[in-house]
Amino acid sequence: MSQTALEGPEFPAASGTAKSIVIFLHGYGADGADLIGLAPELAKVLPDTAFYAPNAPHPCEMSPFGRQWFSLASYDPEFLRRNAETMPSALKALTQGARENTASIAAFIGELLSRHNLTADKLALVGFSQGTMMALQLAPRFDQKIAGVVGFSGALLGTDTLATEIKSRPPVTLIHGSDDPVVPVQASQLAQAALAENGFDVSYHERPGLPHGIDGEGLTIAAHFLREKLA
């Protein structure tokens, strides 16, 4: 696994005292600034939560100003939409990239828990797109059970080895637009099924007509989930 020290924008706890942590994991070609803007809204229901949005460790191969967690050179969303039944095997090609880059996030988690003198059950991951792939790759294989994972518009990679690699089972909520042209909505449906089959407490919320993005209702669902799990 490659490990690069992560850094990016942050939003301190509105109350002045951080009793919990949310880490945003951004999508392909973006950076931490793309998701840290969600923090002020979430802080309305999570005043004791500090928010962090690290930049992915690698420059994006398709965007000179963006970042990536791993390469998507072999990713073809149109093929996945046309061949939904082969989606698990098609996504398998991305698994190694995700696996090789979880160490940086794990180290970042450890750094933040130490900084705030908190335990893992007071930390949640919120991912979007490729960031969701990273969150779902890391959390079940992390040696401490975190408070939960919110996955927007993403996918679960490594389903074929998940059962033998599980170290903890944090609760998961998946939120996906029905009209997503980038990551087909079936990816979250398959993720829900695989996680449930492996004993995870997982919920799935489909946003009708939504393309690749986060809408107000999806953010409300995430806020309710985080407030419950970080209480």
TrEMBL record:
List the keywords (alphabetical).
Answer: Hydrolase
Q: Which GO terms describe its molecular function?
A: hydrolase activity
Family annotation (InterPro entries): AB_hydrolase_fold, LYPA1-2/EST-like, PLipase/COase/thioEstase
> Which Gene3D superfamilies does this UniProt record tie to the protein?
alpha/beta hydrolase
Looking at the record, the residues that make up the Phospholipase/carboxylesterase/thioesterase domain are: 15-227
Q: Which SUPFAM superfamilies match?
A: alpha/beta-Hydrolases
Entry keyword annotation includes rRNA-binding:
no
Give the superkingdom in one word.
Bacteria
Name a Pfam family for this protein.
Abhydrolase_2
Entry's family note: Belongs to the AB hydrolase superfamily. AB hydrolase 2 family.
Query: Per its record, how is this protein called by name?
Result: Phospholipase
Q: Which organism is it from?
A: Thalassospira profundimaris
Q: What is the lineage of its organism?
A: Bacteria, Pseudomonadati, Pseudomonadota, Alphaproteobacteria, Rhodospirillales
